[in-house]
Amino acid sequence: MSAKPRIETAFERLLFRSRWLMAPFYAGLVLALVMLLAVFVKDLIYYVPKALSLSHELSSNDAILAVLTLVDLSLAGNLLLIVMFSGYENFVSKLDLDGETDRPPWMGTVDFSGLKMKLIASIVAISGIQLLKTFMNIGKVGYELNTTEALWGVIIHLTFVVSGVLLALMDWLASKTDKH
């Protein structure tokens, strides 16, 4: 049996090591998480004094919209964490976290298929919150509903929902077939 040509072995090693080119992407996502945190804190600092004001500057609807904005940012942050951890572990290298007692149980278990499902679920949730915020503003003094934007918001949200269902169906069908 003959050995592989040296050039083929060298190319395969280069190809395998090229996965480290993804590491700066994950470092950039850490900076994106810091950016989301800054926006979250800025919004929190803006809304908390309004909620605590005795002059009742924040209505219950406004408070709900503020909370939805914070939840939206939180979901985006969670999405970033999932993409960072599972993407790094699936495509670059396993995280060596021996001795870490608070490691989330899903870490190291989310494969590419699971990552897709978590990604689309988060996008659907974020899209739903944006749509809910639009609808909660209806009837608000000084708010004029842009029906074209609202219609497109509904269409885009439904597109995300259908995409999620189709992705889940494809994953389910793939799990039922023999692997090649």
UniProtKB/TrEMBL annotation:
Principal subcellular localisation of the protein? membrane
- Which keywords, in A-to-Z order, does the entry hold? Cell membrane, Membrane, Transmembrane, Transmembrane helix
Q: Topology versus the membrane, per the UniProt entry? A: Multi-pass membrane protein
Question: Where does it localize?
Answer: Cell membrane
The record, for Pfam families, names: UPF0114
Record's superkingdom? Answer: Bacteria
Concerning its family, UniProt says: Belongs to the UPF0114 family.
NCBIfam families, alphabetically? HI0507
Its name, as the record gives it, is UPF0114 protein KWG56_17435
**Naturally occurring in which organism (per UniProt):** Brevundimonas nasdae
